[in-house]
Amino acid sequence: MRIGIDFDNTIADYDALFLRIGQDMGWLPAGFAGTKKDIRDTVRLLPSGNDKWTEMQALAYGPQMAQAKIYEGVTAFMRRCLAGGHPMFIVSHKTRFAAARPDGVDLRQASLAWMDAQGFFSPDGVGLERGNVFFESTRVEKCNRIAQLECTLFIDDLEEVFDDASFPSSTRRLLFHSGLPPLPRGSFETLTSWKDIGHAVFGSS
Fold first, then answer.
1. Are residues 123 and 145 in the same domain?
2. Are the CB atoms for 81 and 88 separated by under 8 Å?
3. Per-residue model confidence (pLDDT) at position 180
4. CA angle 167, 108, 147 (to 5 degrees)
5. DSSP 54
6. N or C terminus of the chain with fewer C-beta within 10 Å?
7. Is 125 exposed, middle or buried (CB count within 10 Å of its CB: 0-12, 13-18, 19+)?
8. For 34-48, how does the pLDDT look when each residue is reduced to its tens digit (9 = 90+)?
9. Which of 66, 87, 103 is the C-terminal boundary of a domain?
């Protein structure tokens, strides 16, 4: 198998980070609870909400990226892929700089630094080749990269990636859904944990 994985909100978990940023900015109440999507939907309802949300993204994906968490089970899954001889790739739709801060932190370098800190590129950690990480500027370019890499399957948190006409039809689609029910339905398999993703990819053993 050739295994492709999205990065933001699939490997890297921003829920707690976005919550803290939103509360620090005064855009979320102290008792707010919810996922990144819930936070986004709430902030966008505020005056100039889309600008506020864009600013939060610039902070979370840039200078505060180091504070993002990793979803439970990701490292074990990745190690299992590589131990089994399955080539693995991270393919992310990520511009180099945030729209709100075009002269700010290089978002791609921030992501690579986070992966490095998680042990992704260490032989004693995950053992992923740094050259197997790809950042694409548009969703179409991301889908084309997945096709170019001939991924047997791809894991992503966004339904619209799988629904894009450019997504390769021969690639198995696994949607990672970390939020509350109802579960999304479509031309993909919906899984709610990395343990379940492991079962779907490798079987129950």
1. yes
2. yes
3. 73
4. 20
5. H
6. C
7. middle
8. 888 889 999 999 999
9. 66
pLDDT digits (tens, 9 = 90+) for 159-192: 999 999 999 999 999 999 987 778 888 899 999 9
Say which residue the tokens 């370019």 belong to: 141
Q: What is the dihedral of CA 167, 83, 192, 95, to 10 degrees?
A: -50
One-letter amino acid of 58:
A
Same domain, 35 and 127: no
At which of 28, 49, 66 does a domain end? Answer: 66
Same domain, 102 and 150: yes
Instruction: Please give the distance of CA 61 from its chain centroid, rounded to a whole number.
Output: 11
CB 5 within 8 A of CB 47: no
What global pTM score does this model have? 0.93
> Does residue 90 sit in the same domain as residue 61?
no
Query: Kindly report the CA angle at 68 between 187 and 55, in degrees rounded to 5?
Result: 85
Domain hosting 143: range is 3-13+69-202
What pLDDT is attached to residue 204? 67
Q: What is the pLDDT of residue 192?
A: 95
Instruction: Please state, in angstroms and rounded to a whole number, the distance separating the CA atoms of residues 194 and 203.
Output: 13
Segment (H or E) for 162: helix 159-163
Residue type, 6: D
Token pair in block for residue 9: 């909100």
Domain total in the chain: 2
